[in-house]
Design goal:
With about 500 residues, this protein is α/β, with parallel strands linked by helices. The protein has 15 helices and 23 strands.
Length: about 500
Amino acid sequence: MSSFTYQFDTPSYKGTSTVSTGLFINGKFVEPVEKGTIEVVNPVNGKVITSVAAGTAADIDIAARAARKAYKERWGLKVPGVQRGRMLSKLADLLEANADEFAALEALDVGKVILQPYMLACDVTACAGKAFRAARNGDVSSSIAALRYYAGWADKIQGKTIETNEKKLAYTRHEPVGVVGAIVPWNFPLTMLSFKLGPALAAGNAVIVKPSELTPLTALRLCPLFVEAGFPDGVINVVSGYGSTAGQALSEHMDVDKITFTGSTLTGRKIMETASKTNLKKITLELGGKSPSVIFDDVDLEQTVKWVSHGIFMNHGQACTAGSRIFVQAGIYDRFLKAFTEHASSLKVGDPFARDTYQGPQVSQTQFERIMGYIKSGKEEGATVHIGGERHGNEGYFIQPTIFTEKEIFGPVAAIIKFATEEEAIEQANNTVYGLACSVFTRDIDRAIRVAHSIEAGTAWINCHNSSELSLPFGGFKQSGIGRELGEYALEHYTNLKAVHVNIGHRL
């Protein structure tokens, strides 16, 4: 089986990583049926790092049959929750033991340098702007924490005994869905994979993972750790491939009982349509956002500028929760714009492995061109570029931190818009088809809670942004998705609820 070895010699990490580049099905790496490959590109310079196997419908079919067999014969409720939890905990331990290597791989094919939206396992202020350290202490540590969190839930998924009458025993039980297809995005490949694997495996499901074709390396590197952690063959399968082939096949397959997807609203619609036309799969969709940050006159300006910057520029603006619509009350607008501009101008763009880098490259040529296209459209539509808006450097996919004023545009750039009243701010914040997240900045706690409750979004932060917890659910309103990830709520989407009626005295 082919593999790829990369020698890291950087200021932040020195070491060697070897990644098998095949498909991981039924406990081993195999070649794809059609022998196709996908080039993995380094976004720092646009050069090919390696090629990995391109799975197609035939490979998805093999993986689905392996997952179904494993679920029926050696997984599910045949393995007690305490044992499933031990395996998840062991997987977390193994990931932790190799954390620097996984962080380096994330920096290599994602260009990742900064904090993720789910900053669960490290202090934001300790990680922000620390480049490789943020990938290590942010994405990787959050992945480890998620696996450990759901390891603890594995033996606590319980039903209820429900009183009816003296001649009947009635209770509920939560049974695994069966085979779960997990389609993982490119912006947080390891973190999103852990957020999906954790509850799926804790509940006793078998899983087929389809990582993004842009960023497959950490998913493939994780596969030997599945074996070492003790998961039976076929319980976890990883099929790299394009969304239009492998992803579509996974959504269509009649032996897949659920799809969990993080990505664009357009693709989410296709998955929902496919699920309805096949076996009515359960679906969890975490989709796009256009999140508002609402800033009132009475804020702590220094802290607000730092949090709002983290909200929009984190992960190079490539986060579904990015606070790209910044509404600032008139009384503080000029002061905020000046301070925010100074802060954004101080952010260093460059090599993900450099110790002082804050913002790395966009993930791909396609994303780079899309963002530059949004910036161009914004200018043509009358928006004012306050700072940035241009390419950074001569190679790779780097874009300057960008601030627009006066007009809102689509894309991972900050648009700063003035408002007068609370009512006006709420109306503008809700003027979108999305409803993933929002943030409110004010010293008035009554107003903070009132506005947070009024904005139509699945997550509301008060005096912070992109600061989540594993124990709280995450998901969107409106066209930002269906279902929830994280917390106990996520487990509901990976189980089927059964009501059991036991006759203990009724006679006909």
